[in-house]
Known about the structure:
Chain A is mainly alpha-helical. Chain A has two domains: 38-121, EF-hand (Recoverin, domain 1, Orthogonal Bundle); 123-215, EF-hand (Recoverin, domain 1). In chain A, 59% of the residues lie in helices and 8% in strands. Chain A has helices at residues 9-15, 21-29, 39-45, 50-63, 71-81, 88-98, 108-120, 123-134, 144-158, 170-182, 192-201, 203-208; strands at 5-7, 33-35, 68-70, 105-107, 141-143, 189-191. In chain A, the strands form three sheets. A two-stranded antiparallel ribbon of chain A has the order 1-2. Chain A is globular, with a radius of gyration of 20 Å. Chain B is mostly helical. Chain B has helices spanning 2-15, 55-59, 88-100, 111-120, 130-157, 168-177, 183-205, 223-226, 228-252, 256-261, 263-280, 285-296, 310-321, 323-347, 359-370, 383-401, 404-454, 461-467, 473-488, 502-517, 521-532, 542-546, 560-568, 592-605, 607-613, and strands spanning 41-46, 49-54, 75-76, 81-84, 209-210, 221-222. A four-stranded mixed β-sheet of chain B has the order 2-1-4-3. A two-stranded antiparallel ribbon of chain B has the order 5-6. In chain B, strand 1 and strand 2 form a beta hairpin. In chain B, helix 7 runs antiparallel to helix 9 (228-252) and helix 14 packs across helix 15. Chain A binds chain B through residues 51, 54-56, 58-60, 62-63, 77-78, 80-81, 94, 97, 111, 114-115, 118-119, 126-127, 129-130, 133-134, 150-151, 154, 174, 177-178, 195, 199, 204-205, 207-209, 211-216, and chain B through 1, 3-27, 29-30, 33, 36, 38-39, 54, 56, 99-100.
Amino acid sequence: MNVRRVESISAQLEEASSTGDSVEDELEMATVRHRPEALELLEAQSKFTKKELQILYRGFKNECPSGVVNEETFKEIYSQFFPQGDSTTYAHFLFNAFDTDHNGAVSFEDFIKGLSILLRGTVQEKLNWAFNLYDINKDGYITKEEMLDIMKAIYDMMGKCTYPVLKEDAPRQHVETFFQEMDKNKDGVVTIDEFIESCQKDENIMRSMQLFENVI
Amino acid sequence: MAAGLATWLPFARAAAVGWLPLAQQPLPPAPGVKASRGDEVLVVNVSGRRFETWKNTLDRYPDTLLGSSEKEFFYDADSGEYFFDRDPDMFRHVLNFYRTGRLHCPRQECIQAFDEELAFYGLVPELVGDCCLEEYRDRKKENAERLAEDEEAEQAGDGPALPAGSSLRQRLWRAFENPHTSTAALVFYYVTGFFIAVSVIANVVETIPCRGSARRSSREQPCGERFPQAFFCMDTACVLIFTGEYLLRLFAAPSRCRFLRSVMSLIDVVAILPYYIGLLVPKNDDVSGAFVTLRVFRVFRIFKFSRHSQGLRILGYTLKSCASELGFLLFSLTMAIIIFATVMFYAEKGTNKTNFTSIPAAFWYTIVTMTTLGYGDMVPSTIAGKIFGSICSLSGVLVIALPVPVIVSNFSRIYHQNQRADKRRAQQKVRLARIRLAKSGTTNAFLQYKQNGGLEDSGSGEEQALCVRNRSAFEQQHHHLLHCLEKTTPVGPGSLLSSCCPRRAKRRAIRLANSTASVSRGSMQELDMLAGLRRSHAPQSRSSLNAKPHDSLDLNCDSRDFVAAIISIPTPPANTPDESQPSSPGGGGRAGSTLRNSSLGTPCLFPETVKISSL
């Protein structure tokens, strides 16, 4: 998805780095502005209607007048939704999942792309997205370490005030269970096909995929 | 906050898809959500100025007026908009809160008005954003202080009205604290002031050397030793007065412990103690040295003047409130003195016959130099000493100049606060008078209404015409309400005036009940007496009035207008604010009304007067 104009003043500064620090600081304060694609284009590329896009954009623009969400803001938002635990790690992973072009900022297009898959996409697309989330280094394989990181992040979000109190190695056990189910050829990694196949066999997962459809 | 969360909620819920493959148990079903109607634009009409906003914007804060269903009460179906009869300028700030999530405080508006708007729209003041929060709090605190001062001033200003039955102690304390309440207190105030002055002057004069008429001794003696008896008598008299005053204050104080600990009482004690200690101590040379030192404390009597002077009190209060700045000044000075004294001592050590014999001896030089006094009794002679000496004098100027503006501004603030308090007290009196006048206006309107026959049960046409003056609907209903109240409550004392026709007695009693309702019990006793002149005992109820014998009919009272005219004469300048509440008979009356109401009583007793007034 092309971004029409990314006026990143800091990027321009990197080219003209001869000026002193104070001037750089002042210019960095100037907003990084970003304008999204036209409404029709977005409508064609996502599964939202025009009205839905309008509502989404208005809310988005209100919260982020500069047009992009950076990781700090992302983490703040999540910490408000999950106040009882520490959601920064999971927010970090989510940010990377949303930020498909890896430029350190989630623009409105990225936002819509992600939401379109999650809310209006097929089961296949959703599973694909989930795989992308778990695959931290985006190499196409989910290793046990990656899964452990993800699991710990989720358990961190729960916080310490659970009942019954979760044991220290609960994430590890969960990972073991997960790999037992998903890793068909027992090679220690889960590929995208194994993942999709195993999930499609699991009834619980299939049913819960329909849960978050009516979010908008 | 809610604005942000509402926007990101789909985000957060969508991201939960990431947990789905990992869930080991089935996840709970989603809550049924009503079909989103899409966003619509609402029009909010505030006193003619139209504000349009998305419905979602207002829905962000569901516990406010605009965010909840409460706004439906203000919906005007004809125009399809929400109409609020409030200040549109203030509404702008309220609406911006919904839009941005931050409530800003307008700089040029009254903070009270802003608070009222917030209360109306259901916003708590804590929502004021950080940028404006400090200013908002400051202004609010200032307002609250001002109002508290107003109340205090009101209470203090109502001083003269002492509750009846206050003890001697309370009256005495009151006389001490507010000398202007009674002449005796004022006299006492001036007498004590005079004696303080006399005592201080005597202390000063007794040290002046005065030459005796006979030059017996070439040595000049101070006056105190030439006329010991005279000075002793003066001292005794002053101390007696002061002791008496102190004991009286101690007796009258409502809280003796607190009085004993107060600054003024300590000053009093310190002022009179030396005399008594001097009496007790025998006059031998060993102790007389200490005795002489004690006499120094007599000078503290001058502080007793602070009861008489407000300026002195302000100064004392300022110093107390600037304690930290003064402390800083002292501390920095001390540091500088020690440093420079040490340096000067070592610089001048080499010189023989130098004044700088030790570091403490150099302290004197440093202080004199830093305060730019420069007595010249100690001067450095070495070059190093002179250099450091000049540095010392320059730095002294700086160190002393720094805390002084703070102290000065503090004093100025407190002084102006005091001025403002005095001014406000004067304005309060005018305001109260105006309020009383306004209240009397309503009462008079009611009386006019009644005398015009508004209370007539069966009114003829012309009576109705009399009633319908230019009275607003509100007035009509108000008067009807008062009338109902009168009918409900058996107003006893008002029916005292027996000399009225029984046919009209009921009405008259009502009218008189209203006008005499404000009369104090004292004046009602008088009316009783007046009424009792004609009959043996005064009836206490309206029914008994109706049953009166016809001998009281010899007054020509068949036209109620006459009596009405009589009644309307004395009442115009209203006496108390309670007149509009006729249900409280005898409440809040003052002695002044006695005369008026007795004049009210007399016309009914003398028929001639009635005839005259009917002309």
